[in-house]
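In keeping with the milestone schedule agreed at the kick-off meeting, the structural modelling team has produced records for the first pair of proteins. Each record is given below as a sequence line and a structure-token line. The laboratory manager (R.T.) confirmed that both were archived under the project's standard naming scheme.
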Amino acid sequence: LFRSIYGQNNNTNPSYQEYYDFFNSFINPDSIETFNLSNTPDFYYILDKTSSIFKDSTFSPEDTLFIKKQILMGRKFNWIEGKLLGAKIINGKEIHNYFKKDIGDGWNKYYKKYKSGFRSYSLPLFSVGKSKCVVFESWHCGGLCGYGYILLYIKTNGKWERKGSYLSYRN
């Protein structure tokens, strides 16, 4: 089925550089703020069966298949230090280890080392023509502190513009 939609040429898959270019396009190089980022892309809320991103008319059935293919391929991806402007990359397994026994004590130990919370991003997941994109972004700052959004972007005149969000949570 993928061959009939995309042909045999696999060049339509986003490159790793496109992932970084997407996020870096929102950062002003003259005022880069440093932030902690888990190296592991977070797809949980996009994969959640209640997610409405695949239920409206924004994405065609072909787009939906292409996005799901990107999620499968993206599970092996890790964010790399120095590629995403301002990001201090933290190993996702290390973050998990802080919190697996006691969340409160885990945050104390985490903050002692890293001084501020951390972000998690999914990969930007593009439509077939790469004119639309969804991305999950979250901020973690304590046991009952944080937020997360699935954001929709549309490329207009060569620039990505946020057009809406599908899901959010806030602690």
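The second protein of the pair:
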Amino acid sequence: RTVAYAVKSSDHDAPATRSGFMSSGVPGHAGGGEIWITEIPGGETRVLTPDWGSSWCPRWSPDGKHLAYVMRDVRSELREKNRKRGFKPVVVDEDWVGTSLWLLNMQTGESTRLTKGGAVNSFEWSQDGSKIAAGISPRNLVDDRYMFSRLHVVRPFDTPPSVKKLVDNPG
């Protein structure tokens, strides 16, 4: 049995145990926005999404062979280059970055992006594991999440994965 969880940030000032692990079982050097798994029993802990960006909300497929998760999209190369050079403007409600649904094949270690554009706010696997229901809004803004999130059906095993809006409530 394996447990998956997201680590948003680690308190690097917190004391680690002699084994180098913090009391949560996460290595003290762990950065934020990563997905980790821990084998139960035994406690072997490892990171699944190192340096991939801000990842969260891991959910196992019903058969346990895949792990779906949400990850913040990557900023443009120019934007990231300028940020590293110290240019960090605060742009309200204009400089948003989307979030996408990803699927990790636990046997091969390969991740596939399932959605593109907009922001995945929530998702759940179907009982048979063939589909994922996802709430997706056009932009990654708080108001959009509440006002414009729509239900979509994602078929992760189609080639390429397909996303279809299931419900639209225009009023």
